[in-house]
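Tutorial, part two.
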Amino acid sequence: MLERLVGSVRERADARMYTVVAKQVRRADPDLPEALSDLLVVPEGSRVSELEKLRQAPTRTSGTEMVRALQRVDSLAGFGLGRVNVSKVPVRRMKTLAKYGAGSKAPALDRLVEPRRTATLLAVTRSLEAEAIELFALLMATRLVSPTRRKFADEYP
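Running the prediction step on this input gives:
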């Protein structure tokens, strides 16, 4: 009995969170929910969705990978996810939602009902954006800044 009660309260809290997040997404940009849903579509001639492409982080520190990392940051920043105010949602709940979204395939996310789909897509894309920015900063530090510092230190001891 208690287990069912806790489960139903948890489900209502989750539904309320999805509604709050989806409402904030629409408030920030009425077209954003559709743009996020478009990430789940597999483009013509491709085998994976745009979300799957954004999930693939660069694995090497080459110049080509730096360009790819910058393009990934640019693609995610283009959504303007920072405009979405989710301050009323606990950080832990957003992280849990992002983890669920990151671990799910695009077809499974596409089957989610609204407002859960929009909330999940927002959480996962915000998480991917933060990860992409951190990775790009790391690539910049290891491939550009560190060698420049070493060269400068060698020339001007």
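The first helix runs from residue 2 to 28. In part three we will examine how such features are distributed along the chain.
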